[in-house]
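[agent] plan:
  1. take the single chain provided in the ticket
  2. run structure prediction with default settings
  3. attach structure tokens to the ticket
  4. add a short note for the reviewer (M.T.)
[agent] executing step 1
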Amino acid sequence: MTTRLNPYLSFRDTARSAMEFYHSVFGGELTLSTFGEMHASEDPAEADKIMHGMLVSPTDLVLMGADTPNSMEHTPGGSFSVSLSGEDEAELRGYWEKLIDGATITAPLNTAPWGDIFGMCIDRFGVNWLVNISGTPS
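[agent] step 2 finished; step 3 output follows
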């Protein structure tokens, strides 16, 4: 089995909406399990919250996420970004166009000084995204 490094995003009560949004961006198979289904919380207010979400795209991108339990501190964004990079310009531009729906664009998708096409945004759930489309080698 291949070793993978997968982003695992934390949310406060918006994991279902966020993971469904990312499913609309990347496609693939989305699996969501609630705290109630997994008997993971005795707090009835957490029964419908997402304990574990996993999205696997048709191209094997993996993104995971969950709601932070009420008893735990949650500080969104800021200390990390999710980076999408590659050579398939149409695929990456398609992801970008979907990710910016309701987002704050912090750097428009344009040619960067290093020759690649690069952009940054903070999506509607407060997650920082970087998209880098490799330029043509010189």
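[agent] step 4 note for reviewer: The beta strands are 8-11, 29-34, 50-56, 62-67, 82-86, 104-111, 117-122, 128-133.
[agent] ticket updated
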